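Whether sequence alone determines local backbone shape is best considered at the level of individual chains. When preparing material for the folding task, we compiled for one chain both its residues and its backbone structure tokens. No coordinates are needed to read the tokens, only the vocabulary itself. For completeness, the protein is quoted in full, as a sequence line and a line of structure tokens:
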Amino acid sequence: MARKFRVGVVGFGIAGATTAYLLARDGHAVTLLERAPVADPIGAGVLLQRSGQAVLDHLGVLDQVLAHSAPIEELHARHAPGGRTLVRTRYGDYAPGFRAYGVHRGVLFRAVRDLVHTQPVDVRLNHEVVAREWTPFGEVRLIDSRGRSHGPFDCVVCGDGSRSHLRQVFGFRASVLKYDHGTLWVTAPGTGEPGKLLQVVRGTSQLLGLLPLGDGLVSLYWGLPNNTVAAVKARGLDALKDEMRAFCPEAEPALDFLHDFDQLIHTTYRHVHLRRTHDGRVIFIGDAAHAMSPHLGQGINLALVDAWRLAACLRTADSPAAAFTAFVKAQRDYLRYYSTITWLLSPFFQSGWRVLACGRDIALPLMPWIPPVKRQMLLTVCGLKGGVLKGRLTV
């Protein structure tokens, strides 16, 4: 018979909140610690892929989220000079009825946060975890920045994001690649191009995207080297808007909303790889374990699948170590595939290597004409590719 554990969850984001809810629902005693004084979402709109949709369906909140989201039938990338199509990926070509959804991060977060409040989760805001201690019985206590002790816990789940400081504090070795390119983004009134995520590129140096979010909102993002943000700001907002308007005329409604540079949020990205994700008592999930660039639109979906599968492993295990080992085995090929593909793909869209754009512009339009390749591309963007040599993932 599976045991019930005392679980500490660090981070009130999508990964942490979903995990806390699922574990509490299964009867575990859950304490959720968050460093911020208020649990609010941070970030731009997201693509809810088929994998993430499956998890939300299991949670019973999919319809609630989709009611405030925009259906995305295809991913359309084109060149800025002349508008020539680079690639069009239609979800329905994989299976009828398949689509993604553009979702405001706040809509998704509120749905998960409300689930947490339906369970006896001990939520402790404004508690920044800075250390851990071991009890004589091998349990874990978490120490916050004001010296307060939390626990003891049988195990701890860390979902504190791509910039997690607990990886180093807890003795986990991480490889972190900080990308040279990031984005300026804003959520504005508008519809974008209904039914599609539109991306406009010029080589690997410029990228503009429009993602419809539902509720009359659209997310606009402008890719650029991080070291040029100050210079762009110095040129002035009008100059930037003129450049984006010429680059992508469909961005006009969102640009009309911009009247102050401070409305644009500069976001940087990193690629995180943990050599090991757990030590038998503590495990890292979500972006804390495997942050990636947003070019495949998988981050939120991977976090949701992490939470779902970790809860399933703890539901049947007789120890946290056994559950963590089973979880890593279940997720290894899946996460390795998306981590590798995203890492390889990112420089072809945002980097200083112009030669990569030539290879991309030749190969990418041809790949969908090869039926087996097209099917694997579709499975990948849906978030359902189980691994390099594996087929469709079951969530």
In short: The first strand starts at residue 6 and ends at 10. Residues 320-345 form the longest helix (26 residues). DSSP finds 13 helices and 21 strands in the chain.
